[in-house]
Design brief:
The complex is a heterotrimer.
Chain A lengths: L10 H7 L1 H21 L6 H29 L7 H26 L3 E2 L2 E2 L1 H30 L2 H20 L4 H4 L5 E2 L13 H24 L1 H11 L1 H7 L3 H27 L1 E2 L6 H14 L5 H21 L3 H15 L3 H30 L1
Antiparallel strand pairs in A: 1-2, 3-4
Helix pairs in contact in A: 2-3, 2-8, 3-8, 3-11, 3-12, 3-13, 4-5, 4-11, 5-6, 5-11, 8-11, 9-10, 9-11, 12-13, 12-15, 13-14, 13-15
Chain B lengths: L1 H28 L1 H32 L6 H17 L1 H19 L1 H9 L5 H23 L4 H17 L12 H4 L1 H18 L13 H4 L1 H15 L4 H7 L2 H28 L6 H23 L14 E5 L2 H7 L1 E6 L2 E4 H23 L1 H11 L1 H6 L4 H23 L9 H16 L4 H24 L4 H18 L10
Parallel strand pairs in B: 1-2
Antiparallel strand pairs in B: 2-3
Helix pairs in contact in B: 1-2, 2-16, 2-17, 2-19, 2-20, 2-21, 3-4, 3-13, 3-14, 3-19, 3-20, 4-7, 4-9, 4-11, 5-9, 6-9, 13-19, 16-17, 16-19, 20-21, 20-22, 21-22
Chain C lengths: L8 E12 L2 E12 L3 E5 L6 H9 L6 E6 L2 E2 L5 H6 L2 E4 L11 H7 L6 H12 L1 H5 L10 H13 L5 E5 L7 H15 L3 E5 L3 H7 L2 E6 L2 E7 H4 L3 H8 L6 H11 L1
Helix pairs in contact in C: 3-6
Classes of the chains: A mainly alpha, B mainly alpha, C alpha/beta.
Chain lengths: ~375, ~500, ~260
Amino acid sequence: MLDKYLTKPGFGAAVKRERGFLIFILLMFILPFGIRALTGSGLNEGVTKFWQGQLITFFIMAVFAMSYDLLIGYGGILSFGHAASFGGGAYTFALLTKWWAPRFLESYRVMLGSVNISEGIVLLLILLAVLAVSIIIGLIFAATSIRLKGTYFAMLTLAISSAFYILIKATDFHQWTGADEGLHGIPLPVWLNPTQNRFTIYVVSLLFLMICYLVMRRMVNSPTGRVIVANRENEDRMRMIGYNPVTYRAIAFVTASIFAGFSGALYSIWNMSASPTMMSAVTTVNALIMTIMGGMGTLIGPVFGAAISQVIQQFFYTWFGARWPLVFGILFMLIVMFLPYGVVGTWRLQGWKVKQGWQRFLDLFKAKKAAG
Amino acid sequence: MKPKTKKIITLSIVVLVVLVITLLLYKVAGKEPFIRTALSGLTLGSLFFLVAAGLTLIFGLMDVLNFAHGSMFMLGAYMGWQLYTNPTFIFALLPHLLAFATGVMLLPLIKPTLVRMKLPEKWVNAIPKITLVLALLLAVFSFIGFDILAYAKTAMVAASIATAGNPFAEITPQEPFATYWIRPVLIFLSGLLVAIASAKPGNKQEFAVRERLSKTLPVPVIFFSLTILALVVRESAPKAVLLMDGNLRFAIAVLVSIIFGFVFGQVVEITLIRPLYVRPTFIIIMTLGLSYVIRELVQLLWDPLAYQMVRPPFAAQPGKAANLLEWFQKGSSTLNIFGVTFPTYRLFVIALGIVMFIFITILMTRSRLGMIIRAGVQDPQMVEALGINVKSIFTLVFALGVAMAALGGIGAGPFLPIQPLMGDQYQTQGLITVVIGGMGSYVGAFVGAMILGMARAFGDYFALKYSLSTAIAEASTVIIMIIVLLARPQGLFGKKE
Amino acid sequence: MSTQTPQNDLLVLEEIHTFIGQFHILEGVSLRVPKDSITVMLGRNGAGKTTTLKSILGLTPPQQGRVIFDGMEIQGKHAYNIANLGIGYVPEHRAIFRALSVMENLKLAERKKGDFDKHEEFIFNLFPDLKRLYKLPGNHLSGGQQQMLAVARALVPDNKLLLIDEPSEGLAPILIQQMMEAIRILSTTTTILLVEQNFIMASQLAQRFTIIDDGKSPHSGLMSDLVNDTELVHHYLGASIKTRKEMELSHEAEN
């Protein structure tokens, strides 16, 4: 059983280990073509376009939920401020793209041979800025966790994120941030425009999901990841062995914040806007709901959770009318009460039991054979 | 002597700082604005306290952070407001609730017999589950075809009609008794099944002393007679309530809110929170889910609209009272305080907060329950070892906290728009209050609430005066919290672990 | 071993197993506490003595085995139900309620109204200090006073059995004497199950002993037999403890 948890080195082994996920990615990649074949509408129009839109939201929210799971599931850190990273990434991207990028493009032009790559360079620089902002936000949260623990810490994260929220909603910066209404109409190059070139965004967010999943997977299985998990179980003991829990908490925060920041940036590309809701506690609670529903402490769990919540948002309205969140809330409470490990966790536990039962049955059979 | 001198020094420094800040504000703002803003601050602080007191007691004793507290505040406002303007809704539901309670209250009567039953192991485990499912089905059956939405929606009509003169015109008629009687019977049976399930028939680990009938019978009998009474007055009571003197009606509304909060708190603690004490993080998540559900339920019943509750007559007569005595005599809507015109209803809210603070102080220092709570904060296991049922104390404290939030809700009802999100802001501020004051300390909650109330009021005032951003006033509470936490991580009145 | 019949036992543990989290702490502890006597549990630190007391009370309910108190099986019942049957508990580390005054600590222990008034005189005769400190909050008491309060608290209601966990822990020798005297007086009215590291104190007080070792109870019997069994004492309780016989021997040698 143990070798399941040991990571074998090598590319081939990695592919084999993640084959389920990679098959899923491949299916998702083929899906738009399949829909096109079935309905006959083009890749960037009609039903195909609509379903791509649904899936893009799902991919992005899945990464956000996974990054939240790094904190709550792996690190055992209950933070109510994760939306700060998401919104931080989104606003960094939106603000720079709207106010800085056009001016830069006007005055400079970068050529590679005969190809104009200035748009690419700008995008790269903006993404670097997103990275920097995410790291800073992660470090802020990590810094508060030095002095505070448990509930006090959870409250402070809530306070810090609401400070960000208030800042972004403040009417004083209306001309830049758009205050309550948010920042709309981000100028994007045509090849990245979600209304004109939806398939590009679809592929980008799918790749984003794949890369983030694999990187996070690698991280939680690395020695650093193990220490973070061990910190969750017993901080004092880790301190005694010689690991500084603060350092590892900081690593958890910064990594989670980076993934959340990038998913926020991608979300603002996809919506071509950034709104204060992205920074509000509602967004954190959404990630929390996805993580809990899917299964805390697994990476595939939040992906499932994001899928479930996307499906629910899509269908519950038609099934239950305007008050569908009531049904959703009751469902959520039932999951918290009866499936504390979420869908994936429970399935794994039950599956493990089934496997065990099957093994016992086989052993019995073997024993009989041996006796006979 | 040393800790005492230290205490005196800290106290004098605090008094000095408070005095200096007050003087400074007084100088900068001027006399009239200062008094007006300070009184608004007290009003806000009083509401913050009503929310924070429950939060802090609940957290101190059982480490539960109740994220549904704001929703419960909102529910309290809705319930009181319903009784005040649309009693039909409450009286339509009352027989149901009382019949269910009668069934549940039979528990002490049947438990000794059921526990002593000899049953195979399989049945001991299965019976509670089966009975609970049956109870749920019966409860659902009892509501089928019961048009609760109509009773709720009358509210809007009643609100507009009540002032126009004929409050009865739009009352939804109650269902005729010939078809209605089956509902209370079904829900009574449902309650009885719940009682059977919680008695755990045949469970050897349960313990139940056979008590004399004179001890166990009165409670269900009282509830049974109340059910009958509620059935009888179903039709007439709403009218009687609407015809009542407004002040009396308001008093009843407050009482209804408190009772509702108390009962609702108990139900929530027993059904949703108690099973999760082994997984503390999930309690927070559960209460988050609960607040979501409550909000949606309220939107289902009353639509996502904002309502205005009419102020009770004792603070609604036109005219300005010159002093307190005149207010009491005439019930004027505003009062002259040192030359400042201030709404009297807000003074009532301030008084409410102070009275509740005194009540909690007495409860915590003088009563046996307070003793148990203070002991339980330190060591619940040892309290249990003294023969005290700590779980039931948890339920009681949770219910008390929720009742207090509901009281805050109905207190705020007449001057806040009543809408599904009205509790959210108070919950956030309440949580911040608790953190500033120190979790588990009711004195801390009071001081913290007053600080926050003042900060909000003066923040808004100065933002307006110097045309600054209102964001500063909004952020002020958060900034105070961050400063306090960094300087004193356990809060102002919290104890170090 | 003992000549007493089982009917005389107030408390019997039969092979109880207790888990704390995933740790198997008690792996089959059996012991008997005869009526109107002092029984002492001996053993090294971490052997499971405190857990045994908590298992009796239901604070850490045993998963297996039976606990019979006064002829009634009590394992698995709620701790408050068990306590209300008439079991008083004096926890280790003087776990009094520090936020409560001495009076409140005592009043809290009442099971029926008036319990405290009934026993007030007896308690203050036993611990005269407490009367003086009546209104002081618990955190202002000294260690010894806290220990006395912890014992006094268990005396407020009518108890058939007292479970006392390490009453001498961290006390000055003179206070140990006082505590021993108090326990001796108590044993005239109630049955006592004692956990004690101080072998001399234990051997002077108790009539019976049970040794707890590694979550099991390998030996029990009369105290008078144990004090002379040098080998047993050394094996389970460490070499530093001297039995009375050894002390007498060394005393003679010195002379």
